[in-house]
From TrEMBL:
PROSITE patterns: HTH_TETR_2. The keyword Transferase does not apply. Residues 16-76 form the HTH tetR-type domain. Residues 39-58 bind DNA. Keywords: DNA-binding. It comes from Nonomuraea guangzhouensis. This is TetR/AcrR family transcriptional regulator. InterPro entries: HTH-type_TetR-like_transc_reg (IPR050109), HTH_TetR (IPR001647), TetR_C_34 (IPR041483). It holds the Pfam family TetR_C_34.
Length: 217
């Protein structure tokens, strides 16, 4: 089998195209097999490059997925803002946060891995870029949530928004278990009954938090 010869991308637009190709390959692999099961070698193979060439654009696998996480944060924020435009009651605000998360399994998967794995094995510059993008998105979206939810301050809207993302990262893997646990749940309904469903649990917890936040001022 003849291996294609690597040609360095020299023009800025070509470098950007290659970065986008790497991100697209990593995204598709994560959708197919889950974030935890994708290796740097797998991404390199999918995009048709050697690993050494991939790291010219992203230092590590984790940096690839942190950049995808930023893209997903922005996409989620846009979707929530669109839903908030028609929110007429507090429950509509909670639904805007939760329904849009439910519609984004890749985002939820990434959220579950950020603190555990993706913030490890990265450069300080990559960490800074991710944190600033995430904080900026949460602050902006939280302010909009506060405007739509009667009685919440801007700070409380930010807390509610951050909590929605944090809860999604915890609850999503529980609600979407690996094969061994799916088999266990099929065999033991009493154990399966303790597996919290994602969407209704998210709504109940966030609704309770939204009601309770003003009492803690």
């Amino acid at each position: 089998m003849t291996r294609s010869v690597f040609v360095r991308a020299r023009r800025p637009e070509h470098k950007q195209q290659r970065r986008e190709a790497i991100l697209a390959a990593a995204r598709q692999l994560a959708i197919e097999v889950g974030v935890r099961n994708v290796s740097l070698g797998g991404v390199a193979t999918a995009v048709g490059l050697a690993k050494s060439n991939v790291v010219r654009y992203f230092g590590t696998r984790e940096e690839i997925y942190l950049e995808l996480a930023v893209e997903e944060w922005l996409d989620w924020s846009d979707a929530v803002v669109a839903r908030l435009a028609t929110a007429a009651a507090p429950d509509d605000v909670i639904a805007a946060l939760v329904d849009t998360l439910t519609e984004r399994p890749l985002f939820c998967d990434l959220l579950g891995h950020v603190s555990i794995t993706l913030e490890h094995n990265i450069s300080v510059s990559a960490a800074r870029a991710f944190k600033r993008a995430m904080i900026g998105t949460v602050d902006d979206l939280g302010a909009r949530v506060a405007l739509a939810y009667p009685g919440l301050t801007t700070g409380e809207g930010v807390e509610l928004t951050g909590a929605a993302a944090a809860l999604a990262g915890v609850l999503y893997p529980m609600a979407n278990p690996p094969p061994a646990l799916r088999e266990l749940y099929a065999q033991d309904p009493d154990i399966a009954a303790r597996c919290l469903p994602f969407q209704p649990t998210m709504k109940r917890m966030l609704a309770a938090l939204a009601v309770g936040l003003p009492s803690q001022r």
